[in-house]
Amino acid sequence: MPGRLVRPGKGHVGSARHCFVALLALTVVGAGCSSSASSAAPRSPRTAPVRATAAPVASSGCRMPQGPAVATEQQSLEVNGTPRLFLLTTPAPSPAVTPRPLVLDFHGLAEGAQLQATTSQFGVLGQKDGFIVAFPQGTGNPSQWDTSATSHPNADLTYVTDMLNSIESRLCVDTSRVYADGFSDGAFMVSLLACTMASRFAAIAAVSGLLMPKPCLAARPVPILAFHGTADPILYFNGGIGTAVLNHALNGGPTPPTTTTVPANLNGSGYPANVRAWANRDGCNPHSTETMRAPHIIERTYRCPPGVGVVFYIVLDGGHAWPGSKFTQSIANITGFTTFEINATDTIWKFFGDFQLPRAMAKSARH
Fold first, then answer.
1. Which of 41, 66, 125, 320 would bridge 93 by S-S if both were Cys, CB 3.0 to 4.6 A apart?
2. Which residue, 206, 18, 36, 20, is CA-closest to 115?
3. How do residues 75-123 score in pLDDT, each as one tens digit?
4. Where are the beta strands (DSSP E) in 295-346?
């Protein structure tokens, strides 16, 4: 059954969560108990505009009247009889009806859509630069995503499909410029989307959690952007999970150390290997080029075929954090170091701006 819009309304998903649940979110994904303060680092006066040059592909929603701008407005879907939620942020309407890019920003385990919106500040950037942002909401307690490539059916994949269909039928979306990013468990989720919904997403970005799902049956090479800290205390840079931090969140007790004891192998297993696997799958040259962008930032890039890109930002001594977020910086005693030498939100948007879906594929996504 396709997703059906049930009820729009103003509000915040999970805004009434108790601090204990937020603490669990902090430990697993780098969120916090407060959600009212601005969390992203100061940005340059102007973010680079979208650089993809092909003509937009208008969704059916371009025939609908334009509504006013909204900020993290709660939307409800019914997916196969199950109520689901997401938050929506839109820019001010333009004088002429213009198909706009769409970004889906996925939260981490237990975090929820509102905390992700606060962490990334993608909605603020979307309203400034003229694109639509949706913050999906997982299910369960704690809230999470089904990131298994072998779940059949996968209810979260149906939810994402129905959410896209709903947004594209009500708003004027450029279906060639639909993107997904995620943090931690949300990064796991967008990794799965790259394999299963490559015909709907022009590019994906994963902060602290890029995976190579198996099996991966992507319909096309997918541009990939990844970030990971070498001292991540939750998802270790070279693989493994920080169980002490997780146990602290679940059971209380003394705060464990937030740094790993084994030096990171920048070319080893775990997340470096996951990025290499995507470069290989996308047909890129296996030899990467590294540039020190700042004292703590290594930019690792792969030479890829036209229309594809694979970039990995390694944050030296970085924790389980969203680069450039004051929110994750505020709980460094659990998540570790947040760098401000790069802003993940700005960097993701600039990366997305280089890529569009092939026109024939984007047309097939219209409703």
1. 66
2. 36
3. 999 999 999 999 999 999 988 889 999 999 999 998 899 999 999 999 9
4. 297-302, 310-315
In a domain, residue 40? The reply is: no
Residue with tokens 């990939």: 224
In a domain, 48, yes or no: no
Asked, for residue 141, whether it belongs to a domain, the answer is yes
Asked, for residue 127, whether it belongs to a domain, the answer is: yes
Q: How many domains does the chain have?
A: 1
Give pTM, 2 decimals.
0.86
pLDDT of residue 319: 95
What are the φ/ψ torsions at residue 47 (nearest 5 degrees)? -80, 145
Question: In CATH, what number is assigned to the domain containing residue 335?
Answer: 3.40.50.1820
Nearby residues of 269 by Cβ (< 8 Å), 6 or more positions away = 238, 239
The pair of structure tokens assigned to 322 is 């969203």
Find the radius of gyration of the CA atoms of the chain: 19
Query: Looking at this protein, which amino acid is placed at residue 175?
Result: T
Only one residue has tokens 């993940």, namely: 344
What is the three-class DSSP state of 248? helix
Name the phi and psi angles at 85, rounded to 5. -130, 160
Q: Crossing angle for the helix pair 122-129 and 344-352, nearest 10 degrees? A: 50
**Is the confidence at residue 2, as pLDDT, over 70?**
no
What burial class does residue 29 get, using C-beta atoms within 10 Å of its C-beta: 0-12 exposed, 13-18 middle, 19+ buried? Answer: buried
**Residue 291's beta-bridge partner residues?**
299
